[in-house]
Amino acid sequence: MEPIIRYRTITYLIFGMAMVWLCSKMSASALAFASPRADRILFGNLHISGGLGFVLGIGVTWFAWSNARSHQWVTEVVTELSKVTWPSKDETRKSMWVVIGFSVMTAVLLAAFDFVWKFATDLIL
Hints:
two-stranded antiparallel sheet
């Protein structure tokens, strides 16, 4: 399987799982708003909102999969991300230490300003 097709398929799979989760939460909220007892248990531990969310999430994902514009957009995004050169582990580690160092320096500088302004306002008040 070509890498672009594989990554596009993984993208739709992740989108589908997110849509099922989101639709089940939204349907649970809608049913709870309609009536506190509206979200009944179908069987086992499956509520009406879970089944409704699953059907809606799969439907939205199927619509996105069959839509030519979204298919083209996802393919373009995957193609562009395949052109990205990701930093190596050493470059990432060095950059991490630079960010931590500047964060600590900024925190110390802001703390110094805070102490100076507190001292100045205590003298004035």
